[in-house]
Amino acid sequence: MCIRDRSLGRARPAAAPAVAVPAAPAMPPAAPAAVAAPVAPVAPLAAEAPFDLGRALATLPRDEAEAWRALARSWGVALEAGDAAADPCVQALPRQGLQCFRGSRTSLGLVRQLDRPGILALYGEDGRPVPALLTGLEAQHATLALGGQTRRIALPELARWWRGDFATLWRLPPAHAGTAGSADAALRQAGDWFDTQLARVEPALPAEAGETPAAQRKARLYRFQLAQGLTPDGRSGPLTFMLLNRAAGVDEPRLQHTP
């Protein structure tokens, strides 16, 4: 159908009939936002109580035999229960080429200088000794094996309970090891061994006219003892032997040192 436009004088098409557009389906109402449940506050972790060495000494076992067994293990030696129950320094350890050193007024400086594991006797309030294996030594702390636990103890705290009792092990020269009770005699007879070790740590001075090798060795031991802070006597005792081994770099158990 055309409708004539009178103003233009020509026909124009009629408008198309309107088509009904179906309405969009209504959206369901939005669900209310979920509200998070309040989170219960987390309790802070309880700080570990500092280790009280004095209190622990009242309950720790006083098993000296176990302390000797543990010390021997650091040297690669296994002590039987019966060997450790008796004094192991008499026969069991010498059979393995090891000798005992015991000091009753040992300074911590000397322990540091010897630089080897040892047994400290710690005295609690009741006055009875508790053996503790010293395994490490730092500038301000010592590491002890106590009652099956490893403990790091500040040196001032250690000094409260330690009176200087210290025991450790040392090994005779191979040619003189294996005979029980012969440590002093073996050291006296180990002149060649001492000469070899001394040559590693200091050059030999020219011998004086008429000076025997034994006299020259004694003079060298005397100088070494002075340099190490020992009371010098020129004799080849256990302390001199241990320090000479350390200075010469002999492979032996050493204390742990944490940087």
Q: Secondary-structure map with pairings?
A:
Layout: E1 2-5, E2 10-13, H1 53-57, H2 64-73, H3 81-85, E3 98-103, H4 108-114, E4 118-123, E5 129-137, E6 141-146, E7 149-154, H5 155-161, E8 162-171, H6 183-189, H7 191-201, H8 213-228, H9 238-247
Antiparallel strand pairs: 1-2, 3-8, 4-5, 4-8, 5-6, 6-7
Helix pairs in contact: 7-8, 7-9
Structure write-up:
It contains nine helices and eight strands. The chain has helices spanning 53-57, 64-73, 81-85, 108-114, 155-161, 183-189, 191-201, 213-228, 238-247; strands spanning 2-5, 10-13, 98-103, 118-123, 129-137, 141-146, 149-154, 162-171. The strands form two sheets. A six-stranded antiparallel β-sheet has the order 3-8-4-5-6-7.
